[in-house]
Design goal:
Helix content is 34%, strand content 17%. It has 310 residues and is of the alpha/beta class.
């Protein structure tokens, strides 16, 4: 194995064991699975200073399952476990916004709704670009969601759409401008979500784009799109990867990134030396096979932090 010549970083591992943004159980064990897969030792061997800061407290399902918070199919705008998700994301915001002066946080989810807290917190420290690697757009709102699950909404929330409790988390209003976001690997969108995302101003590279252009071109175009920014956050949902490679996810979609495409993306982003923080989310060890998905998450984090498999 070779190593990209990156300056040693002060890494801070933070678990956000939240499964409140969706229905399937088990994703709250994702941080433990990734740690068990050897994350600390792998990053230490790359020459980084690594601190495991433990987990952010998250309300349990029993505590959060208040009848008035359950989604109501009548379209009232109710969302599953809304106040509990807000509480957990506020705690995550506090931790993320305190990461500065050289700290490089790695947030281990949990479902993708944690990104409302992580990205809002990182954005509090200055302009921020986001590369959103996901099979889904996560661009639903209470008016478009077919499920009421908040993990399908974080990018809409971060760009200023949705429930005020979420949009105003940390500080009032949108945290991201559409021109500061690039999505990679998208292949499964709800009908109205597709329309809204197409008109949002966000650059979206679908799996067809990756098939036609190749991952190297997509990665470099993503960086060119965000060239006006000095800091980039990667939010990586493991369901972006082909389910046969990463089976331990709650919402698998066939036709995803290959092992090499995922690594190449992370290697090229690492070479930019602009990545300042990362989310890895939706690892569900209950659905996994021999912790394969968590082990792949460790490999991908190693790639974005200086290790190349070529």
């Amino acid at each position: 194995m070779s190593q990209i010549n990156l300056h040693p970083k002060r890494l801070r591992i933070v678990g956000v064991p939240m499964d409140l943004g969706q229905e399937r159980r088990g994703v709250d064990m994702g941080p433990s699975a990734v740690r068990y897969a050897g994350l600390y030792d792998r990053l230490t061997r790359l020459g980084h200073e690594v601190q495991d800061a433990g987990n952010i407290p998250v309300p349990g399902r029993d505590e959060a399952a208040v009848r008035s918070e359950r989604w109501i199919e009548s379209g009232s705008g109710g969302l599953r476990h809304l106040s509990a998700v807000v509480k957990a994301c506020e705690a995550t915001f506090t931790v993320a916004s305190a990461c500065h002066n050289g700290d490089f946080p790695i947030f281990l989810g949990g479902d993708h709704s944690i990104a409302i807290g992580t990205i809002s917190g990182m954005r509090a420290n200055g302009p921020l670009g986001v590369i959103w690697v996901d099979a889904h757009g996560d661009f639903n709102t209470p008016d478009t969601t077919p499920s009421g699950n908040i993990h399908g909404m974080p990018m809409a929330v971060l760009t200023g759409q949705g429930r005020t409790e979420l949009v105003n988390l940390g500080r009032p209003g949108a945290k991201l401008r559409p021109q500061d976001v690039v999505m990679v690997g998208v292949r499964d969108l709800d009908s109205q979500e597709r329309i809204n995302l197409a008109h949002s101003g966000i650059i979206v590279y679908t799996m067809r784009d990756i098939d036609e252009l190749g991952m190297a071109t997509v990665a470099r175009r993503a960086l060119a799109r965000l060239n006006h920014l000095d800091r980039i956050h990667i939010s990586f949902d493991m369901d972006a990867i082909e389910p046969g490679v990463a089976p331990g996810v709650g919402t698998p979609v066939a036709g995803g990134l290959t092992f090499r495409e995922a690594h190449l993306l992370m290697e090229i982003l690492a070479e930019s030396d602009k990545v300042c923080s990362v989310d890895v989310v939706e690892v569900n060890p209950i659905l996994d096979e021999g912790n394969r998905t968590a082990e792949l998450a460790v490999e991908l984090l190693a790639s974005v932090l200086g290790q190349s498999i070529l």
